[in-house]
Amino acid sequence: MAASAGVGVGEICFFNDEAEKLIENNEQFIFCQEEISPEMVEIVKSKYCKGVITARGGITSHAAVICRKLKKACVTGISNFYKIIDIIPITNTGINMIIFVLKRPCFFIM
To answer: Are the C-beta atoms of residues 104 and 12 closer than 8 Å to each other?
Structure first.
């Protein structure tokens, strides 16, 4: 579900420590999580975090609300979220949303 409009391009990132390392190295990333918890907000706020993809949630989820406030792209409720972990190319279309994961980096438009 398209939860916050925008475009994000960056390396797929699944772990907090990996995100912190990407921030230190000034590298853009798409933060992929089951859901966004309050302790992850600082990572999402980083100028290097270009978008968020979550496995759970919807338009009123924590990830969606935070991303709209920060004007960052966010897609929630991706049922085949774990296919990204396997680096299998996926396409998920919905209302004005396309996600492409082609190895790395990830690119999505809404």
So the answer is: yes
Question: What pTM was computed for the model?
Answer: 0.77
Give the tens place of pLDDT for each residue, 58-91: 888 999 999 999 998 888 887 666 665 544 334 4
**93 exposed, middle or buried (CB, 10 Å; 0-12, 13-18, 19+)?**
exposed
**Structure tokens, 46:** 């980083």
CA 98/CA 110 separation, integer angstroms: 6
Residues 6+ apart with CB under 8 A from 100: 89, 90, 91, 106, 107, 108
